[in-house]
Structure prediction request, 547 residues.
Amino acid sequence: MIRCDRTPAWAALQAQYAGTGKPFDLREAFAANPHRFSDFSQDAPYVFADLSKNLIDAATQSMLLDLARECGLESHRDAMFAGERINRTENRAVMHFLLRNPASALSARAQAATESIAIQLAQVHETLDAMLACAEQVRQDEAITDIVNIGIGGSDLGPQMAVLALEEFRQRGKRLHFVSNVDGQELAGVLAQIKPQNTLFLIASKTFTTTETMTNAASARHWFEAQGGQDIARHFAALTTNVAAARAFGITTTFGFWDWVGGRYSLWSAIGLPLAIAIGAQGFRELLAGAHAMDEHFRRQPLAQNLPVRLGLLDIWYRNFHGFTSRSIAPYSSALRRLPAYLQQLEMESNGKRVDADGQALPFATAPVLWGEPGTNGQHAYFQMLHQGTDVISVEFVAVKKAGHSLPGHNDKLLANALAQAQALMQGKSGAAGPSPGDAAPSGGSEPHAVGERGGMIFGGGHKHFPGNRPSTFLLLEELNPASLGALIALQEHRVFVSGAIWGINSFDQWGVELGKVLAKDIELRLQSGDLSGLDGSTAGLLTRLR
Ligand code: F6P
Prediction:
């Protein structure tokens, strides 16, 4: 495949950026085109996206679509859905989409797909049925009041984010705890709240080798036995591709998955068991169905009406042409408060790479930094920088039309704030000349004051100038439920696929996490022995202080 920066479309985009792209003004674009909202919005399963407040016009969008075609995006996408081993550094297929493929579609798919995919799909449903049966059993088991998920990264972030997001659908009487950090403070805090006879520990680890998880699992089992807990088979279950290691650890209740499920794409597998316990088998199946609807959208819609493609292309436009270094996620939904953390792993572990799929260094930027907090909290913390800082940061708003609670008055305020922030970022507000030396801003004031207000004193001026023209995307869900959450997450997975495919990188490995793991093992031994030999001065100095 031709590298993206060597395509004709890339050169065209560079010229476009130098011409009308850089000075593009959203306010002028809306004034010039009364249909801009409908021209740049998109309906996808469970998600409506307003893309109109992005720094893009029809010509740019068309060039970005050319870029996608010239980079072979469609064939790369089809290769994933055909089960080809597109994760070449690990020689693995990438088939998390299969985890949400309905069993009823088996025969239809089996005709088109290879026999091996049909076999895998049958195994997927066998495991799913067993996992959901376990979830239902736990839900009916009144003696089990606490479920403790021990896992990290993809074995934590997905289920934790989704359990919080779907709190409204959670079965009462079951408390879910998530322990990820090797810092014993986390596990100790949970153990202080639970009793062995009422607890189910889920040891979630794709590899069943991750230090944090193995350390926490060993401590949990030790605590369980020390407290007189009995029947490990009833109180411990392992969610892993490494069933042999789980058995060796002493856990006989296991739910497996496959090496073609990346850790950060594993919410849909046995790793989703805590969520299935929280929302029930039916809810979990709805989550899968929502994600599947988005899979089908991604597979079948033409590129120009394909939401993951359009989002991924915007990411390329911002990162590689505008040079934006980060994207801020602003879920205007407290239930989605862990979404930014989840998306951080999804985007940055997938596309935070400096070489292409063949290991050749890339001369252009790849994954942006992702960060964010739920609105309206973020407004009272860092939105200052979004509006008036020196960096332009594209913001992705995620809003939910229907509230998940019945408290009057809140939802309109929440939604109004989401709209107002997007509006303020775009429209800005003229301040006047810069402030006079010694002028103090009125404390707590939130309304801009023009020069000359307040008896001729200059308040604001430059300080009150909002440049505007700051881009944002607005994703809107009718309501937050298992199906819409599934669709939202699958949308994000595919969007990351799109930008990764265009950059030509392998979005499905994560070699960058390995070095630190190896060094930590060595340093742990040195913390015990005091051996400083061969260490750099800083590490040696710190280690000495830490002993
Ligand atoms: O170290 C990174 C990583 O491998 C992630 O990709 C993964 O989600 C996480 O660690 C946890 O891995 P595991 O599920 O194998 O314990």
User: Anything to note?
Assistant: DSSP finds 20 helices and eleven strands in the chain. The first strand starts at residue 41 and ends at 44. The radius of gyration is 25 Å.
